[in-house]
Amino acid sequence: MLQGMVLLLVFQFIGEGLSALLALPIPGNVIGMALMLLALSVGWVKLEWLQEAAELLLSYMAMFFVPAGVGVMLYFDLISREWLPIVAGTVISTFVVMAVTGWTEKLLDKHGESES
To answer: CB under 8 Å to 40, separation ≥6 — which residues?
Structure first.
């Protein structure tokens, strides 16, 4: 498990470093996740090395949302004033994501059929 935690932190720190060094508008943790995906895809990192650490973090995931919930409570007056744009943005973006996901799957399915 220690090896998995170290790998997760190393990729996060590499991503943070690249984001700061190159002044990228992408958060460092997103860059780190992309680098980890690349490392997993190429085979530099084995899934078994991360499995135990990932399961531990997933078991405590609900606790990681507590600060976000506190933030929502802190700005409840602002949210109550601006509820309509928040709800509209949430609903519209949800449907856009579902549509793009469906179109992407349809395209990939069609592409897979043409190769067979």
So the answer is: 47
Burial of 11 (0-12, 13-18, 19+ CB in 10 A): buried
Residue whose token pair is 């449907």: 95
Q: What is the CA radius of gyration of the chain?
A: 19
- Which H/E stretch holds residue 74? helix 66-74
**What's the pLDDT tens digit per position in 25-81?**
999 999 999 999 999 999 998 988 899 998 998 898 888 888 888 888 888 898 899
Residue-wise DSSP of 96-107: HHHHHHHHHHHH
Residue 14 class from Cβ within 10 Å (0-12 exposed, 13-18 middle, 19+ buried)?
middle
Longest dimension (CA), the chain: 57
